[in-house]
Amino acid sequence: MNVTVLGAGSWGTTVAAVASRRNDTVLWARSADTVADVNTNHANSAYLAGWELPRGLRATADLEEAVATCDVLVVGVPSHGFREVLVQAAPHIRPWIPVVSLTKGFERGTLLRMTEVIKEVVPGHPAAALTGPNLAKEIMQGLAAASVLATPDMAVASQLQEVLHRPMFRIYKHHDVIGCEVAGALKNVIAIAAGMAEGLSAGDNTRAAVISRGLSELMRLGVAMGGEPTTFSGLAGMGDLIATCMSPLSRNRYVGEQLGKGRTLEEILAEMTMVAEGVKTAETVVHLAERYGISMPICASIHGVITGSLSAYDAYAGLLLARPGHEDEPM
What we know:
Rossmann fold; N-(1-d-carboxylethyl)-l-norvaline Dehydrogenase, domain 2; 331 residues
């Protein structure tokens, strides 16, 4: 298989490294410096400093060269640039090859999931999403991890599974694309909430409550959008939520922690090289909740903090003041 990965951030580079162990793999990067770093030094110093990349992995800044001969196209571009890059690549993609999204977010404005964007831009291509509790640096370290490959066509899923599965990186198939994508996107918002609890020194009991109630919120919206309830107790739901909320490697948790310590969003993002998708997703979740008539008080509070209408302290105080009802109901 010829595999192409678009996007040389930490996760795109990691997936390219995994794929290159068994397949001819090309990594597309915008930056000429990153391309030179990969090809000459077998490294991506900007996003994965200290980790050696497989010598068989090749990088290019030429989009046509990257996609023209690939058998599998993997897109790891942040949600705000996903469509633009795919539109530019589309004329050079051979017919029928599968397109796999690594991006855990929604398209701003349209509120589309990434596989829906794929279907709009390159109709006729099987669309899939790879999601789960996957911290890039741990996978580069060789620690065991598991992920979910979601697509409605199980024959395509099996073929893609063979391309990406490794002994220490287990790939499970799943048919519930909606549930897997919604869970992957929304958990980033809950991770900001969990990080805020850490920054406020609220305690582990509080973080556990926020994470579990957050899972309830994202499941309610995901089911309303067409996802299956059991998906949210699996790798794409609970698994990814735990990893993103608890790990110090999580960029969304880091944003929340710094907000909890009183720093402004602008100064936090200015020092980060990687995108924290939860910052953009918070606004999208508010619109989706309104569209489907779902109460999501935790996500709404995080949106308030991000937009500056609430402080982290006031957001948590407001959640604690809400009168609790049945556990299956909103806060």
